[in-house]
Amino acid sequence: MKNVLYKNLVISAIFINILSLIIYISLVKDRIFIFVLFLSLIGVINRQIILNGLCVNREKKIFIYSSFFLMLTIGFTYNVYVNSI
């Protein structure tokens, strides 16, 4: 599993971020806000993918970081939208 995770690091990081966003949106719909605590864990997982990945260059790092921050932005924007209604 680690071999696949670190070989295809951009795909695996984007998959983790999209899956986290889907879980976050479904929990916000149900008014469960405990997932905010796990966002730091997802950031640590992304960082471990970058540190232990194979052939990591600056472009891949920027792509992984931007997908993580895009996931955070979409999630928090959706949270504000749902709670303001």
UniProtKB/TrEMBL annotation:
The keyword Membrane applies. It comes from the Bacteria. Keywords: Membrane, Transmembrane, Transmembrane helix. The chain crosses the membrane at residues 9-26, 32-50, 62-81. This is Uncharacterized protein. The lineage of its organism: Bacteria, Bacillati, Bacillota, Clostridia, Eubacteriales.
